[in-house]
Design goal:
There is one protein chain. The chain starts with 22 loop residues before the first helix and ends with a helix. The model has no long low-confidence stretch (mean pLDDT 80). By secondary structure, it is mostly helical. The longest helix is centred in the C-terminal third of the chain and has 41 residues.
Length: 104
């Protein structure tokens, strides 16, 4: 009983692992410092702000909010004008129908 074995191999690996160079520690240091600064800044602002009650009339509206309010007002005026026009058309017809029913 003769057993033969074969082995296969290659000279170079299939996937090259990243080899560290001198810029990698610098990149890691910058990334970690940025994350720490963002977390610390968020926590600091949350813990040091004072909350105060303000009346809604005292709050200054921003430009976008003013624009949205103006558009809503214009749309409401337009809707009310259109509904008034519809009422002006519908009401006389109702009166005509009532007159015709009275004649019958």
């Amino acid at each position: 009983a003769v057993v033969s074995t074969q082995s296969t191999g290659s000279d170079s690996p299939l996937v090259y692992l990243p080899t560290p160079d001198f810029s990698m520690p610098f990149n890691v240091l910058c990334l970690v410092s940025t994350v720490i600064a963002i977390v610390y800044g968020s926590l600091f602002s949350l813990t040091t702000k004072r909350l105060a009650c303000v009346k809604e009339s005292e709050v200054k509206k921003g430009l976008l909010l003013q624009l949205i309010t103006a558009l809503r007002g214009a749309l409401r005026k337009q809707d009310s004008a259109e509904s008034k026009q519809v009422d002006d058309i519908v009401e006389p017809k109702k009166e005509q129908n009532k007159k015709q029913e009275e004649k019958l």
